[in-house]
Amino acid sequence: MDGWLIAMMLGGSIFLGGLALLAFLWAIKNGQFDDEEKFLNAVQYDGEDELNDAVNLERKKKKLKREYRPE
Amino acid sequence: MSNKVACSHCHLEFSEEVMIKDEEHYFCCNGCQGVFHLLADEGYDSFYAKAGDVKLTPPTEQYEDSSNFNAPAFYDRFVKINNDGFSKVSLIIEGIHCSACVWLNEKALHNMDGIIEANINFTNNKANIVWADEVVKLSEIIDMIRAIGYNAYPYDAEIQESHANKERKDYYLRMAVAIFASMNIMWIAVAQYAGYFSGMTQDIKTILNIAEWILSTPVLFFSGWIFFRGAYYGIKTKVVNMDILVATGASLTYLYSIYITFFQAGEAYFDSVSMIITFVLIGKFLEVLSKKNAADTLDIMGKHIPSEINVLVNEKIVSCKLTDAKVGDIVVVSSGEKVLLDGEIIKGEGSFDESSLTGESEAIAKYIGDSVISGTVSIDADIHFRATKDFEHSTLSNLVHLLDNAMAKKPKIEQLANKLSEYFSTVILAFSFVTFAVWWLWPHSFEVAFMVGISVIVIACPCALALATPVATLVGLSLGAKRGILFKEAAQLETMAKVDTLVLDKTGTLTIGKPEVVQEIVLEEFDRSLLYAITSSSKHPISKGVSAFVKEEEFEVINFDSFTQLQALGIQAQLGSKELLGGNYRLMKENGIDVTHESDKTLFFFAVDKKLVAIYELSDTIKEGAKALVEDLNSKNIDVIMLTGDNENAALRVANAIGIQTVLAQQSPQDKAAFISKLHEDKKTVVMVGDGVNDILALSSADIGIVMGSGSDIAVDVSDVILLNDSLSSLNDAFKISRTTYGLIKQNLALSLVYNGITIPLAMAGYIIPLIAAISMSVSSLLVVGNSMRIKLKWKKN
Hints:
A: 3 helices, B: Alpha-Beta Plaits, Calcium-transporting ATPase, cytoplasmic transduction domain A, 6-stranded antiparallel β-sheet, 28 helices, globular
């Protein structure tokens, strides 16, 4: 068997696995596993209103961050 | 029978006539009605569809004024400012029952001006809120949460848990990397071993080596960072710890394997590098999991002592900071409140609960001129007293100070595994060096000698040793938890197994702690429902004891024409033409009733129309299994000692009944702690069991403090072990479990040492190939885990 084939397959799979690991680490750091139940339950309330709320909150946050200057 | 209807807000069911009808909706109270309309007005009414039939807590309408949340002192303590200048607070939200509640709270908060983040954790009901303080104040945020039917109060996230959580999260990250890499290395290693036996070309071997190298690098430097850090501290304090062994073993193996990869000769050991780190890291993680977190060393002052008192200034009651009160100030205490300063009563009288000083639940009557002591609680007294000491010099503050000291100086018994691993690490490092030297001088190439030297470290690497203690203690913790025994820290299991002296409190620990009727003397027939009616409406412990005794049948509810609680005397009630009196000797005497009965127990007299009809003798009864416990412990050579704040007679009566030889009576909280320190000086390892505020000093100075689950909050906080079901048999179980666990730790350590005793000579003789090293590591760890499971199964059967 060609050595390069093995090297490429190993490299490719380790790279893909590494990506998954990084995503997992990011999720831990982000606190996504801190609350076991909320993230599963949140699926039930995922709708247009919630999306709008999230966008509005994001806008409000940006606006406040720009304008808010406590002494 | 009337129809039951569910409230439109909280879904609790009540009969139709008591409900408030509002168009087509029914409400159980105004609170629910208010919240329902608010949600409808604000457009949050889809909450009810989301919540389904979940029953909610009806909102209470009376809350204290929320403006005190805006006080600077409050902001100082709980509100943090983040990098962008926004304020941040951690709240605990009460009344969350379902995920729809979380949704509603978050939505309501998100829609408030000035709030930029509100994140509620469903599992523990804790919320993190970030807001712009110039736009909206904290009080308005809390008002909003209250308006939609919940309640919120802040907690200090810094001391509570963030530290423990951070450490845990850090370990999760490192373990994720280590486990991911090790599992991948393992399947590459399978190819390596297959090639080792069936033959494979050197270039394929090199490719596999490089793949393993790439995978093991983050394991060694990211996951293994903990060991390098530990090794650094070890060297700094001149202690050869296990971290040094792991760090040197793993990094030498790593360097050697890189050398092999480059020069394309021999076998690389990358799989051993990642496996050592992963296994020992798992062991460490288990230890971190079962460690007491920082939240338990708490701020006692903040949690249990109110910060304000009521002072009389110019005939007006004003509240002032506790620390600002001066000697000579007139302090106002109403019934149910805690006395926070020492002083002398100048107005009013009543009974006080002095259990924080004596441990006795019997109320003490105090009159004008008597002194009150800080830390005691007024049961029914509304008094004014003149402070004789400021807070700094008060009994209470003195106690707090002593407690802080005791907790800081708590003895720590060195754990067996730590002691052992120090010797072990030193010996293995020496062996490996000697092996290397002998092989090199006994003419072999440097490479071969180096490899054999390293293989000694690799094979001895303390995977099983690192797992031995944490796995055993986890078994112990779970055995305890199933029997209602909570060990706050795993290490306490080991300490408890070495205990040789048990110190017990009397009231609440050996006895039930509440007065119970032991004898009833009926002088004349009377209507027992009357006695039940008057005693059950008083909260005094004696009344409660009598009412519990009389309550046997169903009594009709009696509405008295008049009912008065006479402070420090008893109860007086009028029903039609009948006059009822229930209380102590003084009450009878003041009403001109002649009483001749005498007893060493507490007495309760009941008179109808100024005629004595019944006498009740009350005393505290001994808990079940007390005698068996003492006998059992004596047979295990554990000294049992009883300390009590009660008088000598009462103490001796209990001690004789259950067979305790050593008794010390009339002990103040400080005396108890001093006694335990004295035992420490005699090189005793002491367990203290108690339940009350008067025991906290002793509990925190003992090696192990055990508290009854029904004990006071502060005692639960300072102790190490909690007996949830209050029973003495679980105290005995706690001893048994700790001894079993300690035995298990010893077995596990012995197993891993014996294992090493066989493999190390093989390694020194140069017989260890990477495959054997890898298998040996897994097998020894499996042996240790398997042995622990065996004990668990054995206990399960009993």
